Amino acid sequence: MIIIRFYCLSLEYNSVMEREQKINSGVYDNNFLPLDFNIHNRNRHRPLEADFFDRVVALTKKDKPKKISGLPENFDEIIPNFIYRGSWPSNLNELIKKKEISRIVTMYSSDDESEVKDLVKLKKQIKKNHIEHHIFDMKDNKAYWQAAEKALDTDKKTYIHCRGGSIRTGIVSLLTELLYRKQNNQTIDEDTVIKLINDMASHGYNYNKDEYLTLFKEILKESCDRNLL
User: Fold this and answer.
1) β-sheet bridge partners, residue 137
2) 63, β-bridge pairs
3) Which of 60, 68, 78, 228 has the most neighbouring CB atoms within 10 Å?
C-alpha cells in the first residue's frame, strides 16, 4: 500500500545523484515536493521528481497518439465517453458525428492574430451546428481552472482544445481529470499522478521549456492548495 501526502512546495528537477543523496539522507529543501511513503511497512520520504520526472522524460521520446481519420490532431479521451481533447477542430462536422460532441471549450490567445481570426471562423461553424461553445482567453492561470471547471459542469459530451492540443490543452486536461476524480471520490495516488503527467508529455507538453515548466509547477502547487493532491 502506498500512502502519499503532498506538501505544497515548488518543484525543481535535480540530477539523479543529488536526488538520491537527498532521498538517502532524508534532507529536503523548499525546492522539493516530498511524499510520505508506506511501502512494505517501511516509512520514508522522497521527492516526487525521483519517480515521475524520469518517466516523463522517457515518455517524451515516444510518438504522439495516432492520427484518427476525420478527427483533430492529438485527439484523445480524457474521461471515457464524456470529455475529449485535441487540437483546433478543422473538421467540426466529423468530430460531432463520430463522437457526438455537443459542447466545445476553446482556449485561445487574444494576443495571437491568427488565433483570433480562426476563432471567428470556428464560432460561425459552431453556431451553424447549434452546439454550446465556451471560450477562454488564456491570459493567466485562473483561465486554466475556469476552462477545466466549465468542462465538468454538465453531462454533455465535451471537446476541449487549443491550437495544437499540447500545452494549454495539456494543463486543462490535467486539471479536468483531477477535479473529476475529486468530485467522484476517486483515489489520487502516486501512480495516478505519474499517469496524468505522462499523458501530458505524450501529447506534446514540453517540460524542457522554462515557461512551460514554470506553468506546470504553479498549477501543481495550486492543485495542492485546493486539496486536489
Assistant:
1) 108
2) none
3) 78
- What type of residue is 45? H
Report the relative pairing of strands 83-86 and 76-79 from DSSP bridges.
antiparallel
Cα separation of 155 and 93, whole Å? 21
DSSP strand pairing (42-47 vs 34-39): antiparallel
- pTM recorded for the entire structure: 0.76
For residue range 150-159, list pLDDT tens digits in order.
Answer: 999 888 999 9
The Cα 127–Cα 111 span in angstroms is 24
Alpha-carbon dihedral 88, 90, 94, 99, rounded to 10 degrees? 0
What is the 8-class DSSP label of residue 26? T
- φ/ψ of 42, rounded to 5, equals -120, 115
Domains of the chain from N-terminus onward: 64-229 (3.90.190.10)
